[in-house]
Amino acid sequence: MGKLSEGIKTINTTVRTIIMAALVGVIGVGSWQVYSEYTKKERLLADQEEQLTTLKGQIETKDAAIESLGNDLKEKAEQVKELSQQVDRLETAMILLKTDQRLARLEVIDIKRDEEGKAVESNLRFVELSPNGDALSEPKEVTLPGDLVYVDNWIIKFDDEYIQKGDIQRGTSLCLFRRIFSEDQQPAEGFSLDEVGMRPQAYSSGGATSEFEEKLWKEFWEFANDEQKAAEMGIRAAHGEAVAIKVKEGKQYNIELRASGGLSFKPVAKPAGSNKDTL
Known about the structure:
The model is unreliable at 196-206 and 275-279 (pLDDT under 50). Strand 5 and strand 6 form a beta hairpin. By secondary structure, the chain is an alpha+beta fold. It has helices at residues 2-98, 160-165, 211-218, 220-225, 227-232, and strands at 100-113, 119-128, 140-145, 148-158, 174-182, 191-192, 197-198, 235-246, 252-258, 263-267. The protein has two domains: 1-98; 101-267, no CATH class. The chain contains five helices and ten strands, in the order H-E-E-E-E-H-E-E-E-H-H-H-E-E-E.
């Protein structure tokens, strides 16, 4: 009986040991699975955080690139605007360089000739014009011997850079009419013309002489003789000149000023089907 009790005890002990071992094994396996799952989640979280960090860096890089591109576009827009303004200025300068400003009109009233047809004297009408073509004052009627007529003037020509820039005061040559005479008389024997300094049509609203021009005409011969003084005013040339035309009966002539040059006569064209000259 004693041996039986000891056997049962031994069996119970063995069973408990087996149960405890099994329980420990189950707990160990469960713990390992929990730990493994936890570790897996930790790695997944770490990977996600790494991906998030990478994405954040990419976004910051793209934002910087977008900002840089925006700055570049803004800079390019400014450059385009500046270039556009330069083109506008150059186009204006080219127009001024090629545009003749009408300053006066010379009309041939009649020409008296001798028996051989040689011109004895020419009766003429001279009038200075405003930019819109209206007379600035009463026309002057003069009678000159012969038919080769000169218009004497003072001319001031500015440096090309002012014309290219379309400078408001020096964007074109300036002219001051002095006298009208013919080849059959001395210039001093001619008829004086009004001393009106004409401004270019592109800028003048009424033909009045500005303070700037008054200074130029008042000190004209000083500018003509003093290169440094002329340069300080942007003047490249100041001198007198006389343009001539052999007048014809019934003709009218525009006296025009080129922005970069001097005066010229241009016959007024007749409209088709008209016997009259017209401006």
